């Protein structure tokens, strides 16, 4: 059964600060990405195309922390990370600290398909983008007025709300299972607001923020990246299902609520197995998320 | 879901039993200490290795092994031991890390390193470094002095300066031997583009798989792992392999084992090799040797991923396994074992 799940970041989402207008904007963005990815599956497309489509739509939406509207570094620039993984042959592609590529998820996919490498970073990744005939954009393409305000208040030492407006720790991602049972995962992020230039979180690290293995599961994570790296979060979920026979729900629950919480790290993740079963769980107050399956289930949720 | 699952309660009992056993052992004999190192895996053929070159590699490995072991013997931490061993191999131009690292397509060394403390889990890593003499020391500073795990390129070097490190010019890392290798690799690349059979290309590849790494167990029972590399000869600028990726080329957890890998990095990333060895031990109750064998000889071999790993568990068991022709390696522990090797056991002389 084909199905797709997406996330747009996890964190504290105080209901009071999420105005009806903002709430609607987030939901519309999630819906567009969810339905865009689902349409690919419905037309018989691959899970890889579905997750790439959903993530690209979230990258283009200014409310989410990826692509246009990504969080700013302490220097006021945008540095983007993304990864994609094809569960069929464990093929993967990733980029980190990219500053001039409109859709980092497309560059990650190109790394997977056209280079002999998995991870390219910084200026070298952009050199590869040029070799692959990507059109680069100036760094200010990504910057929004809301992100600048967020950076300024963070630098003044004011507490920045985790998700509103818009999410400083957000990350976007998608996992999908297509009609052939092939799994794929994709994740894209601007990282943390006010981050040190060169800091790379879990998103582009295969096994940490992103993993897909046919017959087991596909995972995309969001949250406090450093913790997700140390516990190899996405691969941990797959290993728990494959090696210990845990259900996907149990594996995700153990990771988020026992292992990561025990270390003091919070966040959320979405996962899907070969039957198209979806798990969306988080240890934070909320997680922007959506799921849609061939069985007719369709949901968008925040809390 | 709030109740512990059955496997969970069994695990708790086993951990409790293991704690009792190790407590009893500690009363009877001093806790074991151990260290293993590698200097890369790949095409290392006895026929192509002159006696002088072989002696020189052995001396380099022995110096790193003994330096790391000395730290442990004096009661130092496994973290200090792996740092000391890796730093020496970074400084030794024979190995593909620090000075003497392989050169990228543009003729520069771009260095990656990671370190992990099994007691944490804490980890630090750097990638795309061009001006830091000992990347392993910068990785350790990332772990100890920043809230982050991975810093890359200029941002990482900026952090190095903030921490008072002295940067070195790119020429510091470049050696004549590596410049020659790069020229050969570029020729092979052209030949490949022109459709020449790939055997010559492969011949040029082996030499570049010389990542260095160390795993250690200290008297307090803590495991640590460290890995450092220049990556692949003629690599694309910005290419990052498995070395600085926690879980892929480097992993350590006191719950299972410490692992450092070397080989075709892209395959190690996809299989999350280092963590998968630990998961095999921790969750499937495989022995360290079984867990390593399955990852290196079954999973990696099956996908075409050439290379090897060194691994160490809390009982002091050392496993050094590879599916390539050879792997520069060394092991030393408190039972009196001390060995340096390059080829498969049968070919050792």
Q: Structural class, from helix and strand content of chain B?
A: alpha+beta
Strand residue content of chain A: 25-35%
Structural class of chain A: alpha+beta
Q: Could you give a short account of the major beta sheet of chain A?
A: 8 strands, mixed
Would you give an account of this structure?
- The complex is a heterodimer of chains A (303) and B (349).
- Chain A has 303 residues and is of the alpha+beta class.
- Chain A has helices spanning 20-42, 47-60, 104-114, 122-131, 145-155, 225-230, 233-244, 248-263, and strands at residues 3-11, 80-86, 91-98, 119-121, 172-177, 183-189, 199-200, 210-213, 217-223, 267-273, 278-282, 286-293, 298-301.
- The mean pLDDT of chain A is 93.
- With 349 residues, chain B is of the alpha+beta class.
- Chain B has helices at residues 6-28, 51-73, 78-91, 135-145, 153-162, 176-193, 199-205, 265-271, 273-284, 288-303, and strands at 34-42, 111-117, 122-129, 150-152, 212-217, 223-229, 239-240, 250-252, 257-263, 307-313, 318-322, 326-333, 338-341.
- Chain B has an 8-stranded mixed beta sheet with strand order 4-3-2-6-5-1-12-13. In chain B, strands 8-9-10-11 form a 4-stranded antiparallel beta sheet, covered by helices on one side.
- In chain B, strand 3 (122-129), helix 4 and strand 4 (150-152) form a beta-alpha-beta unit.
- Mean pLDDT of chain B is 89; it is low at 1-6 and 198-207.
- In chain B, 40% of the residues lie in helices and 22% in strands.
- At the A-B interface, strand 3, strand 4, helix 4, strand 7 and helix 6 of A face strand 3, strand 4, helix 5, strand 7 and helix 8 of B.
């Amino acid at each position: 059964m084909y199905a797709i799940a997406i996330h747009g970041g996890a964190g504290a989402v105080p209901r009071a600060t999420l105005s009806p207008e903002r709430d609607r904007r987030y939901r519309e963005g999630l819906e567009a990405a969810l339905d865009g990815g689902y349409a690919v599956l419905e037309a018989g497309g691959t899970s890889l195309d579905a997750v790439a489509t959903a993530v690209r739509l979230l990258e283009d939406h200014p409310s989410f922390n990826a692509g246009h509207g990504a969080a700013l570094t302490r220097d006021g620039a945008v540095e983007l990370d993304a990864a994609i993984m094809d569960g069929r042959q464990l093929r993967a592609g990733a980029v980190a600290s990219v500053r001039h590529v409109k859709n980092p998820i497309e560059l990650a996919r190109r790394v997977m398909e056209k280079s002999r490498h998995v991870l390219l970073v910084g200026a070298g990744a952009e050199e590869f983008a040029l070799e692959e005939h990507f059109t680069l954009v100036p760094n200010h393409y990504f910057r929004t007025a809301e992100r600048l305000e967020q950076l300024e208040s963070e630098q003044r030492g004011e507490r920045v709300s985790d998700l509103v407006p818009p999410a400083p720790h957000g990350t976007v991602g998608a996992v999908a299972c297509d009609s052939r049972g092939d799994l794929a995962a994709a994740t894209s992020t601007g990282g943390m607001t006010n981050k040190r230039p060169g800091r790379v979180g879990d998103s582009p690290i295969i096994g940490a923020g992103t993993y897909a293995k046919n017959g087991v599961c596909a995972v995309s994570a969001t949250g406090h990246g450093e913790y997700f790296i140390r516990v190899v979060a996405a691969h941990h979920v797959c290993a728990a299902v494959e090696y210990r026979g845990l259900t996907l729900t149990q594996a995700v629950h153990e990771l988020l609520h026992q292992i990561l919480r025990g270390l003091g790290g919070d966040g959320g993740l979405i996962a899907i197995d070969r039957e198209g079963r979806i798990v969306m769980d988080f240890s934070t107050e909320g997680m922007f998320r959506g799921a849609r399956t061939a069985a007719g289930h369709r949901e968008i949720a925040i809390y | 879901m709030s109740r512990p699952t059955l496997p969970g309660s069994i695990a708790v009992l086993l951990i409790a039993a293991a704690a009792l056993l190790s407590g009893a052992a500690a009363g009877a004999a001093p806790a074991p200490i151990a260290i293993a190192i590698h200097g890369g895996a790949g095409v290392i053929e006895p026929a192509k290795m002159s006696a002088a070159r072989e002696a020189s590699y052995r001396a380099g490995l022995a110096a790193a092994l003994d330096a790391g072991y000395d730290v442990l013997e004096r009661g130092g931490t496994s973290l200090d031991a792996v740092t000391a061993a890796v730093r020496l191999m970074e400084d030794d131009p024979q190995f593909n890390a620090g000075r003497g690292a392989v050169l990228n397509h543009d003729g520069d060394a771009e260095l990656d390193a990671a370190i992990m403390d099994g007691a944490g889990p804490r980890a630090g890593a750097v990638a795309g470094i061009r001006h830091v003499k000992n990347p392993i020391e910068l990785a350790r500073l990332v772990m100890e002095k920043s809230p982050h795990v991975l810093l890359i390129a200029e941002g990482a070097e900026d952090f190095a300066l903030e921490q008072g490190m002295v940067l070195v010019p790119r020429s510091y890392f470049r050696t004549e031997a590596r410049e020659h290798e790069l020229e050969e690799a570029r020729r092979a690349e052209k030949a490949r583009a022109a459709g020449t059979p790939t055997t010559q290309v492969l011949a040029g590849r082996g030499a570049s798989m010389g990542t260095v790494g160390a795993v250690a167990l200290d008297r307090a029972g803590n495991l640590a792992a460290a890995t450092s590399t220049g990556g692949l000869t003629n690599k694309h600028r910005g290419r990052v392999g498995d070395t600085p990726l926690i879980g892929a080329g480097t992993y350590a957890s006191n719950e299972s084992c410490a692992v450092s890998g070397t080989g075709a990095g892209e395959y190690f990333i996809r299989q999350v090799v280092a963590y998968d060895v630990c998961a095999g031990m921790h969750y499937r109750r495989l022995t360290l040797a079984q867990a390593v064998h399955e990852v290196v000889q079954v999973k990696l071999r099956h996908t075409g991923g050439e290379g090897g790993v060194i691994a160490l568990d809390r009982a002091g068991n050392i496993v050094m396994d590879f599916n390539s022709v050879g792997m520069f390696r060394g092991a030393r522990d408190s039972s009196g074992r001390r060995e340096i090797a390059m080829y498969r056991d049968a070919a050792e002389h």
